[in-house]
Known about the structure:
This protein is mainly α. Helix content is 81%, strand content 0%. The protein has helices spanning 16-43, 46-67, 73-104, 110-131, 139-168, 172-202, 204-208. It starts with 15 loop residues before the first helix and ends with a helix.
Amino acid sequence: MACSCSAEPAPLKPNSKFRTALWIVLFINLTMFFVELMGGAYAHSSALWADSLDFFGDAVNYAISLAVLSASLYWRATVALAKGIVMATFGFVVIGKVIYAYMQGISPEAITMGAIGILALIANVVSAIILYAFRDGDSNMQSVWLCSRNDAIGNTAVIFAAIGVFGTGSMLPDIIVAVIMAALGLTGGYQVVVKALHERKDNRVTAVN
């Protein structure tokens, strides 16, 4: 990859508002990870189980983002690149879980699934609102916004899936939602990786020097 001759501006002082926002959403995501992990296992829901892993992955991402706030753009982009790969990997993991759930043929418990889905949606909408102001920042900021946005979309789908499971007694709505969440992970990861690679290319010289 060719190096850019342009120099990167001096790193900005870490945004205190962004740091506070990250701590808040980190706590929210860790809490919801445990709630959905237990709830998904109890309700036999692939969508809830997958979403619990997503909450955990987001919590790790937020923690990493906090650690590199004062780093140069090159190294923030490097971390964002790793997070983008994790987001995409999550998509493939969910697809594998969907296949396993389909082979088992156990329909989820709709009431528990719906109740936890609503709680998770509230948590993610709050997180998305908190992070909305930082959506147009560098790849590191963009990655945390995409994580929160994807979760809010996914939880809305989980609620509709719970309604579908309740009305039909079929596991199909749960599987469909899990596939949607996998697609969100794959596309979101791709967006972050592309932007991070571009930022790394533009700022490689500064990092080396």
